Amino acid sequence: MKLNQCRYCGTMFKATYSSTVCSHCKELDNILFSRIEEYLKKFPNSNAIQIAEGLELPTFEVVRFIDEGRLQFSKGKFERLK
Ligand SMILES: [Zn+2]
Questions:
Q1: pTM for the predicted model, two decimal places
Q2: CA–CA separation, 72 vs 39, rounded Å?
Q3: Which of 23, 24, 25, 13 is nearest to 61 (CA)?
Q4: Distance, CA 21 to ligand 1 centroid (Å)?
């Protein structure tokens, strides 16, 4: 078991894997992720900053999905933020 902290509500929780979302906030996380997916369908070559601006999200939220490997950018055009 690993002790994780939820990035939304800050709750500490145990899970068998590394996670940054507790079970209560999982849905919120999935909603956020589907909004980003929708955006990328409309604007396929957007970078993290454009997505963040388009959806009015903090850029780090978008980058985090990339870090988790859930978002991939087509044709390798996306450059990771430093
Ligand atoms: Zn939470």
A1: 0.74
A2: 13
A3: 25
A4: 6
Distance 61 CA to ligand 1 centre (A): 15
Tell me if residue 3 falls in helix, strand or coil: strand
User: Does residue 70 lie within any of the structural domains?
Assistant: yes
Quick: pLDDT tens for 8-30.
999 999 999 888 899 999 999 99
Q: CA torsion, points 50, 53, 59, 63, in degrees to nearest 10?
A: -40
Count the domains in the chain: 1
Residue 72 lies inside a defined structural domain of this protein: yes
d(CA 34, CA 36): 5
Residue 82 is assigned to a structural domain of this protein? no
Q: How far is the CA of 7 from the centre of ligand 1 (A)?
A: 7
Q: Which domain holds residue 9?
A: 2-76
